[in-house]
Amino acid sequence: MAVDNKAGILASHFPLADIAKIVSLYYENHYENGDPRFYVSFGTSGHRGSSLNSTYTCDHVKAIAKAIADLRASFNATGPLFLGKDTHALSTPAFYTVLGTLLANNVEVVIDTSSYTPTPVISREIVRFNLGKTTSLADGIIITPSHNPPQDGGFKYNPIHGGPADPRITKAIEKRANEILDHELDKVKTLSVEKALLHPNLHVKDFRTAFLNDLEQVIDLKAIAESSLKILVNAQGGTSSLYWHDLKERFKLNLTVMNDIVDPTFQFIPYDYDGNIRMDCMSPYTMGPLVKKVLKEGFDFGIANDPDADRHGVVTSKGLLNSNCYLSSIIDFLLNTRSFAQGKVGKTIGASMLMDRIIKSYKREVFETPIGFKWFATPLFNKEIVFGCEESAGASFLSFKGEPFTTDKDGFLASLIGLEIMAKTHLSLDDYYEKLTLKHGKVFYGRDDVLITRDQKEAFKNLNAQTVKIESLAGSKVIEVFDHAAGNHAPIGGIKVLSEEGWFSARPSGTENLYKIYYESFKSLEHMQEIKTQAQEIVGKLTGL
C-alpha cells in the first residue's frame, strides 16, 4: 500500500478537524429512509460512522439505544446498564442521546463521576456486578469509535458477560435499530439532557476508584513500584490519562504521562500511513513521538493507549515492540507465574503461531477464534480460558485467584503486565522475547491492510475453503485450508492456509473498506515474503482485486 506524504507528521501542521461542524451535523443530518448505505451496521467492534457522511447521526444513536432498551431483557439483562464515553467529539452528544433514550424507556442507568470512561472499566463494572448472580444482571454501552479518526463516532454494546457482543446479539440490535429508523423513529421516547440528569433511574458512581482498587487482584503493582522502572505513557488524548496519573500517585511509580489533555482534534497525533489521523497503538507513524521520547530520554518502557483504552502499544529501548512478540511473552509469563486452573489460552487466527508452541509447551490447549475479542468474552467470564488476545494489541486475563476481571480488551492490564515481567525477571522485554525464540524457534510475521472498494469487499464471499485449491505455500506442503476457527468453529470471514513452514490468513475488515492479510514463516524473512506474494495472488484471483 502506498504511504501518504503526511504519514508521521503531526496533525497540528495541517488544518484540524472542524469540531463544531462535526457536532452540528450530528443533529442536522438525518437518516436517509430505506437507503442501506446509511443503515446501522455492527462490525468487529460495534457500529461506527461519521456525521460528515450521515452514517453516525442522532437518528442512528437514538435508534440503537431504543433497540437495546427493547431487546436487553431477551439478552438476560434486566438490571442496571453501565454507560460510558470516550474523548472523540461525537461521543459527548451521542452519550446524552443514549442517556435520554434509555431513561425515557425505563432502563436504569449508571454513569461515571468522571467525564470519560475507558472500555475496560465498563467491562469491569459489569463483571463485578454480575459475578455470582443469576437475576437482575447488568450490561453496558461505551460510546467510542476506538482508535478511529477525530470525525468518527462509535457505539459498543457489552452484554452480561461484560465483553463485546457476539453476532447473535449484534444482528438482533442491527435489525431492530434499522426497523426503528425506517418506521418508528418519530415515536421513540427520549428526554432532554436536563430532565435526564434529574431522573430517578439515573445513578452516579466513581468508576475510576473502584477499578483502581481492584487492580491488585490481577497485577503485582508493588513489584512494579519497587523496581523503580522509568515509565512513559502516551495517553493520546484519551480516557486512560487520569487512571495513569492516579496509579502514579497511589504506588509512587516513576511514571510520566504525555498527551494527557482532552482535545477532540487530536492535533498531537501524527498522520497514519493512509493520511488519516488514527490513534493506533501499533502504527509506527502514530507511535513515532512515543518511540522518539523513550529512546531520547532513556525510559525503560513506553506505553500507549487508544482513546477508549482497550488497546495497548509498547516501546522498549530498541523501539516499537511488535504486538505478537509482546503477547507471546505475556502468555509465557502468565502460564509460568500464575496458578491458574487448567483453562485454555485464547488467540485469534491472525496471531503468531509462536503462541501455539508456547501454550502447548505448558500442556495447555489453544483456543483459536476469528478476529474480534467478542469470541473471548464468555470463555473468560466462565473461566474456560485464562487469557485471550488478538494480534492488533488487545488482551485480558484472569486474576491471581483465577477469577474474571475484565472480559473486553484491557489496555491497562496488557500494559501493566509488561512492567511486571520486567520487574520480576529483571529482563528487558526484548531479552525476554529473545529467550522465548531460543527455546521455541524464531518466526517471521507480517500484517498488511489493503484498501478496497465496497464491491471488492463483497467479493470476499468467494474466498472459502472450497474455492482455495492449493497444495503448496511458498514451497512448503499445505496441511490445511479452513474458513472456520478451530477453537470455537465460528466462521473467520475469510480463509487461513496452514503449511509445514508457515501460514497466511486473509479477511475483510468489519468496519472499514479494506482487507487484512496476515502471514508468517517459520523459516526466514525471504520465505515470509514468498508467502505474502502467493497469498496476495490467491486473494486477487478469487476476489477480482
Explain this structure to me?
With 545 residues, the protein is α/β, with parallel strands linked by helices. Among the domains are: 197 residues, 3-Layer(aba) Sandwich (Alpha-D-Glucose-1,6-Bisphosphate, Chain A, domain 3), CATH 3.40.120.10; 100 residues, TATA-Binding Protein (2-Layer Sandwich). The chain contains 17 helices and 22 strands. The protein has a 7-stranded mixed beta sheet, sandwiched between helices. A 6-stranded antiparallel beta sheet has the order 17-22-21-20-19-18, covered by helices on one side. The chain has a 5-stranded mixed beta sheet with strand order 9-8-10-11-12, sandwiched between helices. β19 and β20 form a beta hairpin. α2 crosses α5 and α11 packs parallel to α12. The longest helix has 19 residues. The radius of gyration is 22 Å and the shape is globular. The model has no long low-confidence stretch (mean pLDDT 95).
List the helices and strands and how they pair.
Layout: H1 19-28, E1 42-43, E2 46-50, H2 58-71, E3 81-85, H3 91-104, E4 109-112, H4 119-130, E5 139-143, E6 152-158, H5 167-184, H6 193-197, E7 202-205, H7 207-214, H8 221-227, E8 231-234, H9 241-251, E9 255-258, H10 288-297, E10 301-305, E11 312-316, E12 319-320, H11 323-337, E13 344-348, H12 354-361, E14 366-369, H13 374-381, E15 385-390, E16 394-397, H14 411-425, H15 429-440, E17 444-451, H16 454-458, E18 472-473, E19 476-484, E20 491-499, E21 502-508, E22 514-521, H17 525-543
Parallel strand pairs: 3-4, 3-5, 4-7, 8-9, 8-10, 13-14, 13-15
Antiparallel strand pairs: 1-2, 2-6, 5-6, 10-11, 11-12, 15-16, 17-22, 18-19, 19-20, 20-21, 21-22
Helix pairs in contact: 2-3, 2-5, 4-7, 8-14, 11-12, 11-15
